[in-house]
Write a structure and sequence with these properties.
It is an enzyme of class 4 (lyase). By secondary structure, the protein is α+β, with helices and mostly antiparallel strands. It contains 4 helices and 8 strands, in the order E-H-E-E-E-H-H-E-E-H-E-E. The strands form 2 sheets. Strands 5-6-1-7-8 form a 5-stranded antiparallel sheet, covered by helices on one side. It has a 3-stranded antiparallel sheet with strand order 2-3-4. Helix 2 packs antiparallel against helix 4.
Length: about 160
Amino acid sequence: MNSFSHLNAEGNPAMVDVGGKAVTRRTARARTVVALGPDIMQHLTGADIQTKKGPVFQTAIIAGTMAAKRTDDLIPLCHSLGLDNCQITISTEGTDAIVNCLVSTEGKTGVEMEALVGASVTALTIYDMCKAFSHDIIIRETKLIEKTGGKRDFRRE
């Protein structure tokens, strides 16, 4: 059975020591689905929703990118990583907004948390900017879609 990586021999929280690991190309992609509903989707013009606060999806992408870069400030045992790339896209399917966050770096540890945080904060920003239209918004799921470059790669879909 695997043990928790963020506990030391005494069972206390500890950052994982990655000092002996090799630097490799690390990527991760996460997705969040935001159910906006028809009351909000009627405001969709082209590829974005315009509000008094500004363009929803453009603003959310900036917020998600900023959050991905600051993941170590939010998640206590995450390593500080300089990201080489963070690409966030938002598409719509029916009355849902689909957020995808792809993150990469050259490093000794993975970027899964950065991708998950980027997708999550993007979704939260969509909620914040659209709540004036309706509070019937549901952030349905956030999940890791794939990761590469570590001990083992992972992929779902």
